[in-house]
Amino acid sequence: MAGGIVIAPSILSSDFSRLGEEIAAVDRAGADWIHLDVMDGHFVPNITFGPPVVAAVRGASAKFFDAHLMIEPADPYLEAFAKAGCDGITVHAEACTHLDRTLQAIRALGAKPGVAINPATPETAIEYVLDRVDLVLVMTVNPGFGGQSFIPATLEKIRRLRAMIGDRPIRLQVDGGVAPDTIGAIAEAGADTFVAGSAIYRGGTEASYRGNIEALRTHARVKKA
Ligand code: DX5
Ligand code: ZN
Predict the structure, then answer these.
(1) DSSP class of residue 148?
(2) Which of 68, 90, 146, 211 is 20 to 30 A from 96 via CA?
(3) Does the reported pTM lie above 0.90?
(4) What are 97-119's pLDDT values in tens digits?
């Protein structure tokens, strides 16, 4: 999964009454991946959707379906998310007692394993599973809601993780408060994969989504150069 910058709109900020159309719209507007925020009302204080909804919208885009599971436990649901069409499945280190086993299970299901850490979790929590993952997700807000402010202390963690990852083919993803005014510093710290909900879905039209995605890409590139 290595390569250039990836922009992944989070459908959490879309109009859920038109979910399929909203996914197709960001696809046409230049999204690289589609980010799916799954919340259980237990690990995080909000509830979103599960495998049947993912399966229902799978046909709306051929792009990489990037599932971010904010659920505890995760193991009983991995197969259902893989079968629903998730290409990547990311679990939280804080939600998985046997994280190494869970990541192996995701790969065995044919999906790309990812591991996420909350703002208060140190990068060392995932040091010994780096060889099991294709993606590391640094939460840059406390998970549960869209539209929160970026937490600046996470920049140092991104920098450290970039060094820890070294030359492994692992994407370094950030999620939360990513916007044109924050993405430059985040890219400079070493992230290459950017989730954005409110910064992309604001405006409510395909034309605004295109402009919003382009603005993120431009600001991510400027600081990297
Ligand atoms: C937060 C979710 C994010 C969220 C980001 O728990 O994991 O994906 O949708 O929303 P913004 O980009 O609005 O901060
Ligand atoms: Zn997310």
Answers:
(1) P
(2) 146
(3) yes
(4) 999 999 999 999 999 999 999 99
